[in-house]
Each structure stands twice: as structure tokens, then as C-alpha cells.
Fold these 4 entries.
Entry 1:
Amino acid sequence: MRHPLTLAIFALLASAPVLAAQQYEILPGTRVRVVAPGRFPVRVEGHLIEPYSGDAGTLVIATSGGSVRVPSTSVAQLELYQGRSRGRGALRGFLIGAPLGIAFALATKNDRNQGASSSSDSISVSTYAAGGVVVFGGIGALIGGAIGVERWIPVAGPSRVSVVPLRRGVRAGLVYSLR
């Protein structure tokens, strides 16, 4: 094996048609999100009206403003809705609530200790901030867990293999992508 790079290039070129032949079908009623920069300035979200298989077809999406037809050639990104994640929502809620708890604790710390008769009765700043993190972070986690976070998974487009000339002579590089 004197030329491992040559063998790797041939292996990738040989696998491209096989990977491109792996097809999928998205059934009607599936909630999708589409980015088509040439057709729409913003992301389009809705439910499929007709089945879509990823080949040279058209996505027909029912949106709140009516139905939209998007040619598959103009689709830059296609994502499928996978429900809501309660765990990620709780984490997001905690990450929002915890800094608010620290800010609240630091803002009200001096007011809390004014009535203390001695320094042993006063609460340290770190203890008070930790209490704020627990209380506000816990409230945020409960709210975030109840609301949840939407989960979207991208659908891989067709694979592409390109041979790209490099600088200095007749060398060539290989670009392989699964859009």
C-alpha cells in the first residue's frame, strides 16, 4: 500500500452513489422547518401536506398563512419536529433562574442583615447567594420543565463528492459532505 491517500479517495468516490441512494420519506402531517434562502427570507415552519422523499420533488407545507410549495433544489436545511424535551427545559429554566437568584441575593443582602444583633447572626454573602440559586433556580427549573424546549433534528440531504485542485502543481484534494 504505497498510496493510502489514493485508496481513500477511490473509496470515498465509490461510496458516494451508495450514500446518495439511501432515501427517506417524510409522511404528510409531519411538522417540519425549512430554510430556503432563495425563496423565503425567514425560516418556514408548518406541516407537510404531501409525502416528501428528498429527491427532485417539492415540499408542500401548510403554514398559518396557507400552503407553501418549496422546490427541493432550493432547500438549504430541513428539520423534523421531535416533540418537547422537559429535561432541557428544566435545565434552561435553572440557568435563567440561578443568576437571577444571585442578583436578588446580592441586591437584598444588606437589607437582610441590618436587624442582626451581632455578626454571628448575620448571613454570609455566599450562603445568601447559594440560597438565591436554590430558590430561584428551582423555580426556573419547575417552570422550564413544565414548558419544555422544542427538539428538531436535521434531515441529511444528498451527499456530495468534489475533487478540488490545490496550490502548487497537480495535487488534488477531496471534499466530501453530507449536507
Note: The radius of gyration is 27 Å.
Entry 2:
Amino acid sequence: MVKNHCLNILYISPENTVGTLNLWKHIHEQNGHNCRYVTFFSSPKKYGDDICLNLPFDFTNLARTVATYIEETIQLADSMRESTDRLNQNIREGSLKAAANPSQTYIPPDPLSPVPFLNFSPLQNAAVQLQEAARAYRKTLDVVILGEIPSPTLDDLNGLLMQAERLLTSGKGLPGRPWYTHLIYAPGLYTGYGVKTLPAVREAIEQREWEEVDTQTKRTAAAIKSLAKQIQRATQVLKRAVRSG
């Protein structure tokens, strides 16, 4: 005879997006288990919340992180340029052949195409816009008492915030794997589940596809600017709440 053990089950999720948390809780309780779920934000579609923390969004860390990813990507291109120049110089001067084992046949590699000076200004400008928007939102949020915001205004704000990070995705997906749509971080094309930041731009650099680098730079920058504009809209909603209070 198998004895049923009562389990204590806890789900943690940003939000109860489509009501599955209610379903799982119901099923677990029907099977004799204890189940609770914690969400960070209230359900945008009015599904029931169990333990909702109602956390305020703060975009400053995200903006700072995106700027760091951009600088790392620029450093990657600079490092590749320097290493390519050294390798090509060694090939031209015969250094690789001179250092090879003389008892074995050695065929030196062909020179690599030089790494051009790539234009990352669209990304850098987008990062500045995102940081400015995040700071303005944080400054406005600091003077707002969320519990005193009228429900219609709060609904408007939550609707904007819910859509915010989705603006960093692309319906076309990433080159070579359209099922991954996030333009800021995703599993690498050749790294299994190892994460790549700014994956479309970074992998174009690594594969030495210079025209593709330009295309993906503009594409990623446009997504970052879209997020910055969304944060600006959310800031205006908060300011409206301040004025009405």
C-alpha cells in the first residue's frame, strides 16, 4: 500500500499572466497537497492573486546593465581587431612557419580579413536614452505613493510596464534561431545554453559578418529606444498621478 505524502508547494512568478497558477494550485490541493504562489505584480488580466508583492518597477539597473553589455561588445570588436592584426603580421613575416616543427610539413593559415572600425553609435545613443528615461522614472516614482494612485491610472501604468520588456524582443527572432526573440540576452548559437549578451550583434562580430553587424546594431538599438520611450510614457502616467494628488 502506497502512502500519500502531503507536499508543501510554492510557485514564484513575476505575474499570473494567463491563470495557470490558479489551475496548478487547484489541482495540487485536490490531490491533498498544500500550494501557494507568489507573484511580483498583480495579474494584468485580473486573474486571482494569492500572495502578490506589488513590487514597483525600477529600470535603472536594467539600463546600467545594457550599457555594460554594449561596452563589452565594443571591446570584443577591438580585441578581435588587435588579435587579427597580430596574426596577419606573423603570417606575413613568416613567424608561424619559423616556429613550426621542422620535421613536419607546415602550411601557414591564410590571413584573416581585417576587422573594420564598426559603428556602434546607434547602440551607444540608445543606451544613453534608456539611462535618462530610467532615471526620470525612478525620480518620479520616489515621490509617488503607489497605494494612493487611482485605480484607472494604476491600470494604465501597469499596462505600460507589462509591455516594457517585450519591446526588447523581435518577432523575426535571432539569426539562425528565430524561436529565440530577446535581443539583449539569449542562448548562444554555438554555446548550448550558455548565454550571449546582445546576441545578434555579438555573434555577427564573432562570425566576421561585418555588414550583418551593422544591420543587427541598428535593429538592437531600435528595440532599446522603444523601451526608453515606453518608460517615458510610464513616467508621464506617474506625473499625472502626482498632479492629481
Note: The mean pLDDT is 88.
Entry 3:
Amino acid sequence: MKKTDQLGGNIGADCTHSMGTHTGHSKHKAKASDPMVQMKFTAEEQDIMDGKKGPLLQKSIKTIIAYGQLFGADSLVDLDHAPHLAMSWGTDAVGPFLKIYKELADAALMEAIHAHLGRDAYPAPIMKKTAPALFRWTETMNYGHYVQDAELSQVPQKYLDADNLPKPLMDFLKLMAADFGPLFEANAKAYEAWLIANPNAPEGTRVTNDQSRMNRQAMGRAVYKLQGVTIKRDAWPDTVNMHQYVLEVVDAMSAKDKARWTKLMKSIGGEVFLGHRPSRPVVLQSEDAPYQIVLGPKVKK
């Protein structure tokens, strides 16, 4: 057993200098010879472990299992909401994560993962040292509108063929629709219910039940199923606001492009995103912290 700190480069170390065995057994009476706890898997989890659902999920679940076994977990559990991913800590253990994140980046997870790491003070240098090509790619993607790197000046700047997206990206889009679709629908319904409960709310009213000024405004409860598990959580108007941005892009499309968009969304099971349009817009006000989402003007019939 070792006593170390967060920056000592040892998996399981923490800033409180706690003792750890890294065997998956309780610290009490633990011996170095104790065997690692073996986890039990459902049929679906075993299929992922066996690579039947693709190498990306296989690598991801193996990482989660390895972490769980270190702390004595005997099975996986369903989450009650989407996790927030951040790596604002620094150990040598970051290296393997970055390799997996590169695979996730190929599945179009740039915004959720690499952009965050590229802006954090400690993970960014680790990524730069451990995976320099990935760091440069992340830096390039953070430019947003164009590529200005000399080494990429000869690379054609173009989007993927929307009618022939690569299979890993399609698989990810299907997963996104299956997992996020129910939450989106629950939030959309909660917003419509809030509008019905507040028919005379004037433009500029905060979309929240208690009118408090907070980062996460609760406009009701969202109840939905995620992979067979019933989730109950606060419904946020952020989802409505973000969906409006998508609708603005779709509304500006030509008839031909709208047809292609509809075809794509149906192919990934994203009909729920096609079928909803808020009956009254919301507006994001970000001039003063914290930001708030308020009612927009009434829609003329």
C-alpha cells in the first residue's frame, strides 16, 4: 500500500493521502495476495465485452470494468442521468484515457470531450505530451470556422458526405437518438405543460417554477425511460433553447436538403426531434451571470 498525492502518478491516489490497496478489496485486513474481485455481466454487457457491438463500446466498457474492479464492484449499474465528463486531474493514468478518447473523437464526440480537455489547465499539457497528434487535432477543431494550420493547408476543407456517413458515426447517432431522445421529449412536454400552467406570462418571464435566478432553471419534472430504467429529474428549458438552434438551421434549408435531413433523422431513430416545435419560443439572456432562459414573444396564429 502506498501513501501519495494526486500528482504522484498512481491510480487511486487522492488529495487526502488515503491508503489504497488497488485490489478491489476493503482496506480493512486486506492482503497483497487477495485475488481481484470478478464482476458479473448481463447478456448485453457480455456482448459489448465480446465486441459484438463494435470496438468503440468494447474499449469503453473494458475501461469502466477495470476501474470498477479496482474498487471491488461486482456488477455494473445503470446511471440515472447523463454524466459530466471532465479530467481536471493529472496522473500518468491519463494516457490510456486519451487513446480511448481518440476513438471517441472519430465517432464525432469532439465537443463533449476533447474541446473540454484542450481548455483545462492540467489535462491539456498531458494530452500535448502523450498524444501530440490528438492535441493538434483538438486545437484545430477549437478554431471553429476554419483550419489555419500550415501542415493542413493542402487538406480539402469539406464536410462528410451527408448521404454516406461512415458507419461509426451512424452508430453513434443512433445511440444518441436512443439515449437522448426520451429526455428531449420529456423536457419538451414539460415546457408545454409549463406554458399551459402560465398562459398569461409576459415576454421576458423566467421559464422556471419559482422565478429564481439560477444556472439550472427547473420548469417541472421530466419522467422518461432510459435503457429500461425510469428516470425522474428536473426538466430544464436549456433543451428547448438548444433545439431552437437546430430548428433555425433546418428552417433555412432548401426543400431538397430538408428531405435529406428528414431521411437521416429517420434512419437513426430521431423522429422525436423532427416532430416537436415549441409553441412559444424561449430566449437565452447571458448579459449578466448567471444566464437565464426567458419567454420569447407569443407566436402569431
Note: The beta strands are 221-226, 229-234, 282-285, 292-295.
Entry 4:
Amino acid sequence: MKQNKTQNGTFVIADKSTPLKNVRASFPSLYRKPTINGVTQDKYGITLLIPKSEKETIAKLQKEITELQKECDIKVSADKICLKDGDLTNRPENAGYFVMSAKNRLQPRVLDGNKEPVSEEDCKIYGGAYINASITFTIFKGSVGTFLSAQLNGVQFSKDGESFEGTVSVNDADFDILESTDEIAEEEDFLA
């Protein structure tokens, strides 16, 4: 356990990272810090959805959370811990999962199935994809409160899943088949 005291409070980092296998990604911001209500946030992040059927994984996470609090003698209230019961949130895609928000000021590593780095253009991690993730638990205690968070170290694409964002449906009858480039040019003139 590493402990740092700052002017704002005490920051504790667990000694080891925790791997998570085959969890679902939600709200990935792996290459750009997200903008919420017009304000760019100061951290990269992702929400991890862990199926409730993964009882061993959930028990391991809960044990690590409890051990870190005991090690540093800092008690964190349940509502300030990053691991939440998804059935108690207002998001339908969280039902049947435990939900964990993981963030980092530094950009996390993003890897493909061969452990090769992935560029933003080639990234297949989207809301609903299955991923492997590496996190490190941290505790912050200061004047603004006490929080137990997950620091995002990296993610690896595992497999495709049903997208949470859905798709836009379109009626093919709304479009004509264009026979030649002249018709395309006429369309472009019309739309100009």
C-alpha cells in the first residue's frame, strides 16, 4: 500500500492491480477525456459491468475493497465505494450486473486480443463490448469526503456484444437507387 499526503487530504493506492475478465464496457472514454454538460473532465474512464453470475469475481472485489480499508484504517461508506449493485441504479443496461466506474488522469493502455496497442481509429471497445480490464483500488480521504475508487490501468478487447447505444433504423424506401454519377451530381446540386 502506498500512501501520499497532500494539502487536500490523504491518498492511498493498493499494492497490486486487479484483473477483470470478460466484463462489459459502458461509456468508454479511452482516447479522449469526456465532455459532460460542456465541461471536459480531467480523467479518462470507463464503466465496467460485471455479471452478477460471476460470484467469485464479485466476492474477490469485495474482499479487496474491505482489505484496503482495513490496511489503511480508513472506513468508506457504501455509497462512496466504486462497486455498486446495478439493479439499484436507474439504467436498464445495468440490471443483473455490478457496476464499477474506473478512471485515470493518464491515458490507459488499450490492447487487442494479441496484447498489441490499438489506435483510436481501430478501437473496437464500445458500450456493450466484452473486455478484460486492469484496475487498482484507491482511497482518498480529505475535506470533501472519503471515497474508494478504481483507477483504470488498461483494457483489452475480448469479444463483441450487443451495443447499448442501439442503431438508427431507416426505411430503404426513403432512398432511390442512383444509376450514374450524373444523377449523383444532380442530387448534390439540388442539396446545395
Note: The two ends are 63 Å apart (CA to CA).
